[in-house]
Amino acid sequence: MLPGSTILFSIVLLALISQTAFAGKPFNTSTTSTGEAISPERDFEVAVEAGWLHPKSMDESFWLIHGDKNGLIIASPINGLLYIRFTNLGDAPIMIDSYSIEVLSGKQEWVRLVTIDAHSGEVYNRGPTDDMKQACRSNIEKDTFDYAIANKNIEPRHTVRGWVFVEAPEAGLEGGKEARFNVTDILGNKAVRPIKVLTGESQSVQPRLLHVGETKDLSQARKQFYSETHS
Question: Cα–Cα distance between 88 and 158 in angstroms, integer?
């Protein structure tokens, strides 16, 4: 594939449990280091607009190419790409300190997905063959959710979007389509948003263009799960 060309791939739209404000009480009132009261009227919605989540496997199209401490090239499969939308519905800015995504397993246990730091390497599509001899460079990591929220105040009525790359847990996802999004802001306030992630056949498909760059032979890269290199 020539550099600068595009490939068309389909993204499974994810069904949402809810797109309303957090149920229950709003964030607790906090104070800054100066003693100034922080308004409790902090409200937002979070949704997964598109993407997919597969069971933990090495049989994936998208891979993070990164190095270990010894300089070896590692290829880690990306089991899930989730397009997150976060909207501040309150009257004050919100700065996200951390977040996580948990999935309800077939054993009815909440299991946290491993979030892959896309900026720790480069994302490649394995190309037309399974051996990654014609892997295609992707620039998708520049559109990540982490980049969109990094050290950024999300102003009232503003929305940020971006991709989250994940590694699926060992626990089976069969039959379990419930998930939740955990958020902690820089003031230490925490909240949870229920979402739904499709792990079976798609209910609807939306085509999306993905621009790719160079083609590279990555057949010699060592295949290893991201969690094994960033434990």
Answer: 6
- The predicted-structure confidence for 36-86, as pLDDT tens digits, reads as follows 333 445 678 878 888 888 889 999 999 999 988 788 999 999 999 998 889
How far apart CA 26 and CA 181 sit, in angstroms, is 16
Burial class of residue 128 (count of CB atoms within 10 Å of its CB; 0-12, 13-18, 19+): exposed
Q: Is 140 helix (H, G, I), strand (E, B) or coil?
A: helix
SS3 226: helix
Q: Which two tokens stand for residue 120?
A: 């720790």
Q: What is the DSSP letter of 216?
A: E
For 168-205, write each residue's pLDDT tens digit: 987 666 655 688 889 999 999 888 888 764 444 343 33
Query: What are 139's two structure tokens?
Result: 């620039």
What does DSSP assign to residue 221? S
Say what the pTM is. 0.74
Q: How far apart are CA 214 and CA 146, in angstroms?
A: 24
d(CA 178, CA 102): 9
